[in-house]
Specification:
mainly alpha
């Protein structure tokens, strides 16, 4: 379950929007249309073992502060600063080129790039991210009828306005969920169909913790502002592989020197801010902050009373992981080897025994 990134809207106590996927009432003439076999065939069948205490018409008390920025979100933003500086230098270079060639004022591209960060909270932009970057889709009517009451119960217990978020589905046979951007909450079709409502609520409470803690938007914001720098580095690598003539070699060499100079300036600035030794372990620190975000989201779900159900989900995922590894070894031959230390340190998610260990105080 990831920050990972990964929210149609909960109907709350008001009328559902036209595209929310809610089941519509039959016509006034009393004629009920026959059920669609394609929809009924895919209706979720997981048991509904959740006690609903905050249904439509019930009073819900919302917390005064719906979101916060915890220490994990601040850590994610801090560790994204070197990439931001690299991107800033690339944008400044492109602004200077546009100013010299087209006469475009130097400050316009820079200000547009800096202001573009608000797009991560823009609903239409989030829809595009959900559909084309994360590969999510809107819930079908039966899926919405199953998912929305569970989401409403979780957010009501947390004192959060669930209508602020958008629920999405991923067509996947794996057990996973997402919190992304400012309002995206996604679950896999497998999780929706196979998990009992209590376990599904625990998964959604975990993803809600990523949002209320600021993990989702801070991670996406850091990624967004690092795009120009990463794009410049990829262009340099492509150009280096496509050199075929001495003339092109000279041009590419000049561009390469320029990009390396930009990278050197960004690294120098980051080294001044962090210290050079800390810069060398930046990937490991980023992974450690990601693991801490997962543990904090687990704690958020546990504090809402979903620790037992979340533990059941984690135990199931751990068993599935071991089974998949054993099946792969049976096909390829050999024996199960322990994961290397660098691989564990670069993992953005804690292993399942660690997550269960941190839940023990809530069980």
């Amino acid at each position: 379950m990831t920050p990972p990134t990964p929210q149609p809207q909960d109907p709350g106590d008001g009328p559902a929007p036209a595209d929310s996927g809610s089941v519509q009432s039959p016509a006034d003439d009393g004629v009920v249309p026959p059920p669609d076999p394609h929809l009924t065939a895919t209706a979720p069948t997981a048991p509904d073992d959740l006690i609903y205490e905050h249904g439509p018409g019930r009073r819900v008390y919302y917390a005064a502060h719906q979101r916060r920025v915890d220490i994990t979100a601040l850590g994610q933003l801090t560790l994204a600063l070197p990439a931001f500086l690299m991107s800033m230098l690339v944008v400044l270079l492109m602004s200077a080129i546009l100013d010299g060639c087209l006469g475009l004022p130097f400050w316009i591209p820079v200000m547009l790039w800096l202001a573009s960060g608000v797009l991560v909270f823009h609903r239409p932009t989030e829809d595009l991210l959900a559909r084309y970057l994360l590969g999510l889709r809107r819930p079908m009517p039966q899926e919405a009828a199953r998912l929305e009451p569970v989401w409403r119960e979780v957010t009501a217990i947390a004192g959060i306005d669930g209508a602020l978020y958008q629920l999405w589905i991923e067509e996947s046979d794996g057990l996973n969920a997402y919190a992304a951007a400012g309002h995206i909450v996604g679950v896999t079709r497998f999780a929706l169909e196979q998990l009992p409502s209590g376990q599904l609520a625990a998964v959604l409470a975990h993803e809600l913790g990523h949002h209320t803690g600021g993990h989702a938007w801070s991670l996406l914001l850091g990624h967004w502002y690092g795009l120009p720098g990463r794009a410049a580095w990829r262009v340099l690598r492509v150009m280096a592989r496509s050199v075929v003539t001495p003339a092109r070699c000279a041009v590419y060499f000049a561009v390469g020197v320029l990009l390396l100079a930009i990278g050197g300036l960004a690294s120098t600035a980051a080294a001044i801010l962090y210290g050079f030794p800390l810069l060398l372990v930046l990937p490991y620190l980023s992974a450690a902050v990601g693991r801490r975000a997962e543990l904090r989201a687990d704690r958020h779900a546990a504090a809402l009373g979903f620790a037992p159900k979340l533990a059941e989900v984690l135990e199931t995922m751990h068993a599935n992981e071991i089974r998949a590894r054993q099946e792969a070894l049976a096909v390829m031959g050999g024996r199960m080897e322990r994961e290397s230390t660098p691989a564990r340190l670069l993992s953005t998610h804690p292993d399942f025994p660690t997550r269960l260990h941190h839940l023990r105080h809530y069980l």
